[in-house]
Amino acid sequence: MPPLSEVVVTLLGLVTTPSFLDALATTAYAFWAGVIVAVVIGIPVGILMGRSRLLDELLLPWVNIFLSAPLTALVPVLMVLFGFGMRTIIITTTLFAIWIIILNARAGVKNINRSLVEMSRSFGATPLDAFFKIYVWAALPEILGGVRIGVIRAVKGVIIGQLLISIVGFGALFELYASNFLMAEFWAVLIVLFALAFTLSEFLAYLERKIAYYAASR
Amino acid sequence: MSQIDRSLGRAAPAAPPADIAVSVRGVSKNYGDVQALENLSLDFPRGQLTSLLGPSGCGKTTLLKIIAGLIPASSGSVEVDGRPVEGPGPDRAFVFQDFALLPWASVLRNVAFGLELRGVARSEREDRAARYIREVGLAGFEQSFPHELSGGMRQRVGLARALSVDADVLLLDEPFSAVDEQTRRKFQEDMLALVETERKTFIFVTHSIEEAVYVSDQIAILLPRPSRVHEVIRPSISRGGGGNIRRDAEYLDIVDEIWASLRSYVE
Ligand SMILES: Nc1ncnc2c1ncn2[C@@H]1O[C@H](COP(=O)(O)OP(=O)(O)OP(=O)(O)O)[C@@H](O)[C@H]1O
Ligand SMILES: [Mg+2]
Fold first, then answer.
1. Measured from the CB, is residue B42 less than 6 Å from ligand 1?
2. Does A129 touch chain B (CB under 8 A)?
3. Per DSSP, what are the bridge partners of residue B172?
4. Which end of chain A is more exposed for a tag (fewer CB within 10 A), N or C?
């Protein structure tokens, strides 16, 4: 491993180069697309599982399998199914993030104060009202916790996708630096990646803390 | 207070009014092996206040929720205005024992929430909510959140929410249990005024014998599981004349009588 000072100097020089910015944009695109899909599908599925015994019994074993499965091993299957493009990278990212999001949304709904549900029903809430005005908000602390962990997993997913499926974005940079033994550059990119993931996760943790005051009083 | 005053009391015990708002017929409720209610029948006259009095765990909340249409009866039926209850409806509003406030919403939104679910436009529902917030003595707390309020204040938010939807039947599950004695007395007076002016039907759960006798037209005493109506008492105490009812001999007699019925179950 190169000395840290060298890595830092390399890093400062690197982050303004067009090839780095290009890789950042490509990776960010795949990352956000994957995370958004995971959130948009994962939260409703988790909430529905928390509400419906049938759905829960049907899906929970699968969610648990995928949560702990070595997803990297599935990537070749995805490549056969969806090809070698950006789409498959996004699907890989989603697949890494979604299971914990589902599980946490489900747990949030399971912990909901029954009385709030009864209250909304007594004032004539439709199932849709209950979903958007009660369940989503009541489960919000758990949902945010799930998204926070999901986002970290998505970072892993997007890099694995960019290494295995098609060599683009940060994956391409890692590949390039590693095969040419440019270790300072390699570590610089890794540090940038960690910093970005850390910032994002801290931001979500901050949101979680901000709403923690009502989590206790549910 | 004179004899004549007393005979002019609001509810004559001999002739129950024919106009029944809510009628419970032979209702039983089982929770698994636990039988909470057994073949319970009771009529609630329109425009009057009926208290449900009984030891903890005897099924008062259960009965209220069945009337509200929140849980189904295992057998028997409930009718509101002659129509069988199949679910919640706008003719009934519930005040929950545990308040059931949205922790993420301000007092104003909480009070307006019933109207929000009924599709009332924002400005109108907030006007109406603000009026009831004043009425329950929470003016100035519109923008506070439930966790910033005391238990009694939260309870009043739940009360204001139920009042603001203007339902015919109000189901109140120990609505004053967390308010202080002064507020409680003020609310009792307010509730009596509401019964007089609004012709709403109140179904009121309480643990306090004194409170039940003070505010009720009719008191149903429930005994422990499986619970039936043990006795229906119609206190005919005149509240006119300005005297202190709480020192009235008849008031004290009824309190004693109910206490005698209940005391064996309190241990
Ligand atoms: N959801 C439930 N599942 C199982 N048992 C229940 C349920 N709800 C109530 N019970 C039981 O039914 C009985 C009546 O409960 P309920 O809440 O109606 O009593 P209550 O008269 O309102 O009591 P309190 O005065 O303490 O509020 C109790 O024994 C309780 O354990
Ligand atoms: Mg109760």
1. no
2. yes
3. B95, B204
4. N
